[in-house]
Structure formats: C-alpha cells, structure tokens
From TrEMBL:
GO terms for molecular function: alpha-1,6-mannosyltransferase activity. InterPro entries: GlycoTrfase_DXD_sugar-bd_CS, Nucleotide-diphossugar_trans, Och1-like. GO terms for biological process: protein N-linked glycosylation. PANTHER family: INITIATION-SPECIFIC ALPHA-1,6-MANNOSYLTRANSFERASE (PTHR31834), TRANSFERASE, PUTATIVE (AFU_ORTHOLOGUE AFUA_6G14040)-RELATED (PTHR31834:SF8). It comes from Chaetomium fimeti. GO terms for cellular component: mannan polymerase complex. This is Nucleotide-diphospho-sugar transferase. Keywords: Transferase. Belongs to the glycosyltransferase 32 family. It comes from the Eukaryota. The keyword Acetylation does not apply.
C-alpha cells in the first residue's frame, strides 16, 4: 500500500516539475519576443503605459486623501466596542496603504475642540449641545471630511471591493467628492413621505478636505439645528427632535438638499431631484461624482455574486442598517 502511494506521489512531482519547466520556457520565449520584433516592442510600451494608467496615483496627485474614518459613540450602558463584531477589519484590508481611525466620544471632543474652538466657536458650541448620538455622529462625519478629508463610513457598512477601485485612476486624480444614491424611486419604488424620490446616502461619503459641499453642509446643519430649537423657544441642548427633524437637520434629507443644490449649480441640465432618477452609471458634475443606488447600498445577492446585473453595475459597499439613529425616549 505505502510504496504504491509513494510511487504515485513521485509521479505527480515529476509531472508538476515538467509542467513548470515548460511553463517557464514558454514565458521566457514570450518575454524575449519584443526584442526581436520592433512592432511588438511598441505594443509592450503601450501595455506598459496602460499598466501605469491602472496603477493607483500617488497621494500628491489625488484630492481625496487615503484615510478611512469610522465613528462609534457608545450607547448608554455600553462602554466599549467589540471590534470583532464590526467590519473594521474589512475596511482595513480593503484599503491597503490607508490610514484608519475609529473615533469615540473622547477623540471626537478632542478633534472638534482642537480644530474649531478658536476659528469657529459656533461649530464647537453646536457640537457640544447635541444630546442625540446619531446627530452628533452625523455632524462629526461632516466635520471630519471637511477638515481632514478621506472616506467616512458607518460601523454597519462593509466594503465589497478595494476602495481604490471605486473610481478609475484618471478620475481619482480629479474627483473631490464621492456620493451615492440611497434611494432612487425609479428603481426602488415609493418608500415613505420622509424619503425623497431621489436621496443621497450619508452612511458612506468620500471627500477632499475643504470641499465646499462639506463646508456648506456644516453651515446648513448648524442653522437647521438652531432653527428647530428656536421654534421650540429652547436652547439647543434642551430641544426635542422628531425623527423627521433629525433627518432634515443632520441626516440624509438635509444632506440630499445640500448635495443637490451643488449639482444643480454645476449642471444646467439638472433642474429638479427627479432629473437624477434612474441613474445607471456614475454621473460627474465637476469634481463631484454621484454613484447609482446599488453602489453603497449593495444587497446580499451582490455580496454573494448572485445578482449579475447589479454586480456588473459595481456594488461597492453593503449597508446593514444596524444603526439606532431614531430619537431616543
Ligand atoms: C459657513 O459659515 C461661515 C461662518 O458663518 C462662513 O464664513 C462661510 O463662508 C460659510 N461657508 C460656506 C461654504 O457657506
Ligand atoms: C427642513 O429643513 C429646511 C431647512 O432648515 C426647512 O426649510 C424645511 O422647512 C424643513 N422641512 C421639514 C419638513 O421640516
């Protein structure tokens, strides 16, 4: 029994070795070819150019820095985050060469105070007045992206492809803001009266530092928060926010208004939100790109490769809707 098994073992090694030898000779023949023939030398030069074009551009050439941000504000009674129960490691492995920062309560306070206390005390005061962790997390993501730039993504999101593949390298050199649709009524149907027919998600956003859309969003958010408090005749830290007011002050309704205003300013063909309906491929407006609804809202079938059509349309990030954003109490 045993000698026979060994015999087969050696036979396989011999076959494998022959195959390797053949393969290496074939590749060396292939490699030598361009030197013998000027036409294929030109081809090689061309394919070299192509490879260079596909290589991720150096940091100095891209507006959006290679940095991932995530935020975790501990719910009452929970002190620490079990990182094993998150997709943090997926973000790290899908973003080689990127910085990764998970911000908790204390880091957030330190970041906001050190970045804005002297230049924009309105920002610091507003941030510290927010009691709802969801609204704090909303405002913090805009502040991080505006001040530092990079990719922000919620803890309940999971990247499906390497983040450097979100855009072709040539676009990577130009794009300063990446947003995706959260809802597209032409493809998703009607949801509810609080969801715009076309809405942009803010669970995943990529931005260059200082991008005017983020600067505008910070201002819009601060004004909207104080408007709600003023209507109630209360200080911001005593105001009560309905779900709708959360969505419309710091959440996706507010984000959609600000992003859309900027697209309309840049693209004369876009007059109303519905002009962005039924988006099937990335839409560029200056340095801003809008990705179709499946890009950051992949379904499980995209993740498992079952849905060919959507997969071809590049599902990039899956969102698991675990966030407890709704007004507490
Ligand atoms: C935001 O508000 C500040 C202070 O009120 C102002 O100086 C700045 O120009 C505004 N930025 C944008 C993008 O609207
Ligand atoms: C949403 O916020 C905007 C700007 O703050 C305000 O003008 C509008 O009335 C709000 N809409 C709702 C439904 O509260």
């Amino acid at each position: 029994m045993l000698p026979h098994a060994y015999h087969r073992y050696f036979l396989w090694i011999a076959i494998a070795a022959t195959f390797c030898l053949l393969a290496s000779q074939l590749t060396s023949v292939h490699r030598r070819q361009p030197k013998q023939n000027p036409a294929s030398a030109a081809e090689t030069a061309e394919s070299l150019v192509e490879t260079t074009a596909l290589r991720p551009p150096p940091a100095s050439e891209i507006p959006i820095p290679r940095q991932i941000w995530q935020i975790f504000f501990a719910p009452p009674g929970i002190k620490t985050l079990d990182k094993g129960g998150t997709y943090a490691s997926d973000w790290i492995s899908m973003a080689p060469g990127y910085g990764y920062t998970l911000m908790g309560d204390e880091d957030a306070t330190a970041f906001v105070d050190s970045s804005f206390a002297s230049s924009r005390p309105d920002i610091t005061a507003t941030f510290h007045s927010l009691r709802n962790p969801a609204q704090k997390s909303d405002l913090l993501r805009y502040l991080l992206l505006w001040h530092r730039g990079g990719i922000y993504s919620d803890m309940d999101t999971r990247p499906l492809v390497p983040v450097e593949e979100w855009l072709p390298p040539a676009k990577r050199r130009e794009v300063g803001l990446v947003v995706a649709l959260e809802w597209d009524v032409a493809r998703d149907g009607y949801w509810d009266e609080n969801t715009r027919d076309v809405q942009f998600c803010q669970w995943t956003i990529a931005a260059a530092p200082g991008h005017p859309v983020l600067g505008g969003m910070v201002n819009h958010t601060i004004a909207a928060l104080h408007d709600v408090a003023r209507q109630q005749g209360k200080a911001l830290d005593e105001a009560d926010f309905s779900d709708l007011q959360v969505l419309n002050s710091t959440g996706p309704m507010a984000w959609s208004d600000v992003v859309f205003d900027e697209i309309r300013r840049r693209d004369p063909l876009v007059e109303e939100l519905n002009d962005l309906m039924d988006l099937r491929s990335p839409k560029y407006a200056g340095d801003l790109v809008v990705l179709p609804v499946e890009s950051f809202r992949a379904e499980s079938s995209d993740e498992w490769g079952l849905n060919g059509w959507r997969k071809n349309r590049r599902a990039l990030v899956r969102h698991y809707y675990k966030g407890a954003w709704k007004a507490q109490g």
